[in-house]
Design goal:
Elements lengths: L2 E5 L2 E4 L4 E8 L6 E8 L6 E6 L6 E3 L7 E6 L4 E6 L8 E9 L2 E7 L3 E6 L1
Parallel strand pairs: 2-11
Antiparallel strand pairs: 1-3, 3-8, 4-5, 4-9, 5-6, 7-8, 9-10, 9-11
């Protein structure tokens, strides 16, 4: 049974940092690329950062360039999102997502973790 457990969200002041974690189980972790999405109130879910299944490439949204970093530790079945220089505009629910490298339409989603950045 596939399970994704997210943690690390919370309330932080602008300029602060948080590190989100997503631990996966029930699937072969290294065969899946990893993504972090976020959804702000009243807005559509957007892709924040992506890392390939073999960690040879990452991509990111322009809005988080230079502030957020996605990494993965396959030995721990964990993907991380390090968020520095947080802004109120970063507030939202953050979701980890895994897409099968051979067919990205096959995906798993975490339950989401709330990140709130106060001015």
């Amino acid at each position: 049974q596939v399970q994704l457990v997210e943690s690390g969200g919370g309330l932080v002041q602008a300029g602060g940092s948080l590190r989100l974690s997503c631990v996966g189980s029930g699937f072969t972790f290294e065969h899946w690329s990893s993504n972090w999405y976020r959804q702000a109130p009243g807005k559509e879910r957007e892709l924040v950062e992506h890392i390939t299944h073999n960690a040879d490439s990452t991509t990111y949204a322009d809005s988080v360039k230079g502030r957020f970093t996605i990494t993965r530790d396959d030995s721990e079945n964990t993907v991380y999102l390090q968020m520095n220089g947080l802004k109120p505009a970063d507030t939202g629910v953050y979701y980890c997502n895994f897409a099968y490298f051979a067919n990205p339409k096959i995906t798993y989603w975490g339950q989401g973790t709330q990140v709130t950045v106060s001015p």
